[in-house]
Amino acid sequence: DTEVTQTPKHLVMGMTNKKSLKCEQHMGHRAMYWYKQKAKKPPELMFVYSYEKLSINESVPSRFSPECPNSSLLNLHLHALQPEDSALYLCASSQERAYQETQYFGPGTRLLVL
Amino acid sequence: AQKITQTQPGMFVQEKEAVTLDCTYDTSDPSYGLFWYKQPSSGEMIFLIYQGSYDQQNATEGRYSLNFQKARKSANLVISASQLGDSAMYFCAMRDRSNDYKLSFGAGTTVTVRA
Questions:
Q1: Collapsing DSSP states into helix, strand and coil, what is residue B86?
Q2: Which of A72, A113, B57, B83 is 20 to 30 A from A52, alpha carbon to alpha carbon?
Q3: CB–CB of A43 and B52 under 8 A?
Q4: In this predicted model, what pLDDT tens digit does every residue of A52-87 receive, in sequence order?
């Protein structure tokens, strides 16, 4: 089973709202990732967690706040977003952070900021 | 620095025919992994196939095969017997230590399968 789940599938929010994206995997993977993807572009890495600790933050604005409550869950808290933050947000996981490990992606959350 | 290049923005292929998607990469690290993903219009990024830098044989997974030419730093994806459901964006990607094991993606190739 290589399933990563994400909720919600779609989200519309105003610039003053606070919302959260959720990601879950039960493959025992110890590395989890958040990506942002604009239409017809490759995904852009935002954050990496390894063994529940934040390993990489790709200079993401503080209006995006990641959280890893346990080894199976990854959240992305959103606050005071801008319209340009509208995108597909993908979560992924891999066994470890290593060159040979495959990242498995969830179905994504399509976010629209009004 | 590493780089993934996909030179074909879009391709058309007839149903039941084979199609080759080009991918070249650049890294100075001897240990690296190459990946291909498929992304249909629904948005999900689907893992297709993996090739490790030390693998002697070309990887195959069902109708997908990877033509790995290490000296040329090339990792082309071949899809045999194309189906309408193969219409999607395809991304080539690489991981290595020099880039902190991040997955670096190419620009992608859009494949449209014609009936």
A1: helix
A2: A113
A3: no
A4: 999 999 999 999 999 999 999 999 999 999 999 999
